[in-house]
Design brief:
137 residues, alpha+beta, 2 helices, 49% strand, Thiol Ester Dehydrase, Chain A
Amino acid sequence: MADTSTLDYENNPLMQTLGFKRLLDSDADSGRVTLEFEAKIEQCHSVDIIQGGFVTGWIDAAMAQAVLLKTNFECVPLSLDIKIAFYRAAHPGPVVAEGSVELLGRKTAFVEGLLRTPEGEIIAKGMSTIKLRSIKR
């Protein structure tokens, strides 16, 4: 099982730019992670609607972290493609991103992600094909 203390989000500039709040749940064995982000008014494109790139970024971050956990931090996840389906608008406030590894091969992973409101309503769903690059230590 991966050491989740390696996930130092508080000192990760990218995660801070995305508005990372806290790690809600993680399971390295199943390759699942749940993260909370704070959507900010500065991320809106129209009054109070969050720009889709941030929605995609939150889902992508959760999917990448799921791969890192599942591979015990031995592989860097490199997105080959990503598809996002938007179900409803995201607004400023907390959002919850979930990532899960659906299939892990030697060189490729297939992952899925969700973005929800704190009440559990789905904002967007994503899926990605990820190339696994070995981390040389």
